[in-house]
Amino acid sequence: MNVYAYSMKKISGSFLWTLIVVSAPVLLFSCIRSAAVQSVEQVNLFSLPYGAFDDEVYLFDVARVGQIRTTLAMRDGFFYIANGGAQKVFELNSYGDVLSLYYTKNDDDTLQMDDRFAHIKREIPFPVTFSNALAVDAHKTIYLAGELPRDRHEYDAANRLLNSHIVLRFTEGGTVIDYLGQQGIGGDPFPFIQAVTTTGNDELVVTCTTNDGAAVYWFSAGGMHMYTVLITRDTIPLPFDVAGDVFPAIETVFPDATKAVLYVKVDFYAPHVDRSANVQTGIDFVRTALYPLSIETGTYDIPVVIPPYEQEVTEDYSRFIFQLPYDYLGVTKSGWHFFMLATENGFTVEMVQPDSQAILRRQFTVSRDDLLYHQFALSDTGIISALFGTQRELAVVWWRTDTLIASLLKS
Predict the structure, then answer these.
(1) Are the beta carbons of 353 and 332 closer than 8 angstroms?
(2) Average pLDDT of the residues in 90-117
(3) What is the pTM of this model?
(4) Residue 243: what pLDDT?
(5) Is 120 helix (H, G, I), strand (E, B) or coil?
């Protein structure tokens, strides 16, 4: 029997403990699906123009070539856009009206003063550069990840990590309360932050990228540190039907909305060997598995196989089927896991509900010709929102996949 070591530190006990988990079988289930993947209607909500004024955005940051640090969160029909190029955060309603505007001082005067927005502007008193991690809880508290100036970076030699990020926290009324680090309020900087997520109890979960996988920090609604969970590739149990020379790649980690559980999305790959030359020429995708990981016990539950996207290619009278892994968007309060993949005609979403053994697939038909940038956000009720950056503007759209799921399961 294969055994795997898993390490977790729980702050209340102030000790490090190693727990053992065993290789688990894979949960296979039937699907609710139609013969053809149907399209879901896209609702265009509003757009923001490009520019330097308060109600405009900088999509491309010339100082950081190749990086677009603009991200989206949606809560109860209100939208929050962190625009890294201009170092400001918008709070908007579904009509695109600016309700609050948070900003940092900019030495090059990128943010132009506009008297129309003077009463709703709030200065962020921390020297950070926004990254693509943003979340909002039920009380409209905003959590925004940012990188500290270089002179405040801390190198963790033991784990070979550069700790350089913090999470800003500010309230609906516009007051920047404080920032969170590894130990909680005012703590040491985090490693690179991949995602910030709030749970149904308004707890905050910060997922960081490490050299070996991920480090997850779990905080109470008040900002007190509760757990640190280290997830590494060598602690991932192999599915029972995967053998041979395969290796796991941890894509991302999201918390459950109501339970002390993390969902670890793992893609398995195997070396691709050219038989004629007997040399490795690449890697092949094998399997995607979603592992529930209990925070209380530190054990992995039975993983769920996530069916891949199948792309058909025809060449010289031959037909090939390529399997591609989806990206993980997160999980809703009702237990639906959402996965997304860019395709030729737009985007395909796959929705998986292990408890009801259901899988739904739908197509988001989007023209890619004029699309320069896209970024998705999943609400805890199952609404998918997106930022679409074109040559002309930054558009905000959504798809009511929450009503889609409800109607299909009733039928």
Answers:
(1) no
(2) 79
(3) 0.87
(4) 65
(5) helix
